[in-house]
């Protein structure tokens, strides 16, 4: 095995590395000798590297590296002036002081004539007390009565005596103004929602997961229907969550304004809006109904069901 010896000593290396600044502010290389000596005791590379805080060769400390301070720069929505700060070779560059304004939506018409929500008469109440004491009291009462009759018709609960040592969740009314595509008011909507955040895991609910269809799946279905010249039908299920049956025993306070007996509470039979497991129960209900009618669930997309008939 031959011995390999490497020479690590560099002596008297001549190079053209002096930096000069020409008349327009560009750095050029001039021919001059710079001796670089490197041994095992000291490293000297001061002739090659210049600190950002040091002046380049050929530039005095009084010369500026930036354009004149009164130069105007137009960016975005307005023009700003470079600050009147002297910059020399021994100072760091000044940060930009350009104003960063948010994007303005000037093409939107937010006048009261087109957006009825600016009128105090058309404000959605946040509580039952606001709804029954506001200028649209009769409309909100009618909406609540319609929702209450729907709950009774679907047998959502039954009144029972108030149990002891049992978690009784509360409920609230949620109010919404329904509008058309141009913003005209068409309906007053009230919905009774359970306060699901007061439920206890393992007692009032266990599983809450339910699949949701992906947007890419919808686009694929639309493309297939368009390619095969098929018709697309859309069905909106009214009070969808009220069709699922609860497996847990959940007690709920009577809705505000519709109490019949203060000593009674609602024993829920159906999954009301606001419960943590409502969406899962609705998904299980849809799955059982579709599979019972001959539909097969896709293995790649759990929200897609297929059914093949003889005419296909």
TrEMBL record:
GO process annotations (BP): DNA biosynthetic process
Record-linked InterPro entries: DNA/RNA_pol_sf, RVT_2
Lineage: superkingdom: Eukaryota
Any Pfam family: RVT_2
UniProt domain Reverse transcriptase Ty1/copia-type: residue ranges: 154-308
Protein name (database record): Reverse transcriptase Ty1/copia-type domain-containing protein
Organism whose genome encodes this protein: Euphydryas editha (Edith's checkerspot)
